Amino acid sequence: MHLQVQIINKSPHELPVYQTSGASGMDLRAWLQEPLTIKPMGRKLIPTGIYMAIPMGYEAQVRPRSGLAIKKGLTVVNAPGTIDSDYRGEVMVAIINLSEEEQVINDGERIAQLIVAKHERVAWEAVADLDETTRNTGGFGSSGVH
Fold first, then answer.
1. In whole angstroms, what is the distance from residue 92 CA to residue 33 CA?
2. Does 132 fall in a domain?
């Protein structure tokens, strides 16, 4: 059974689709009036023409596409970007150019992946102490280098 999600597509491009049977993400496409150039270390907000009603208890995550990152140095600035269940605006993708050259994004180009995931809401329980673990307070890099 699949999760039903309401969607409006104002772009001329196909709805986000899974490219393979094992894919967890669906590709989002740029909806542009003309090609968009991003300078090195430049950031742009790219429209998709997609509007969704994510069900309560779920979120949509906007993640980078590995091919775009490796081939062009383009990635999602706030990866993963979160689309909450109560957001009804256009899905926009914040892209940064990490390469040393200007990069061009064209209309219809696959620019990011969209993953819809279930999440839990937290009810905090204030306590005086936490249970001990093997790791305990070990932070960044504390598990060693393998």
1. 15
2. no
Number of domains forming the structure of the chain: 1
Give pLDDT tens digits for 92-125. 999 999 999 999 999 999 999 999 999 999 999 9
pTM over 0.90: no
- Domain that includes residue 31, residue range: 6-118
Which residues does the chain have with pLDDT short of 50?
none
Instruction: Tell me how far apart the alpha carbons of residues 136 and 2 are, in angstroms, rounded to a whole number.
Output: 39
CATH code of 106's domain: 2.70.40.10
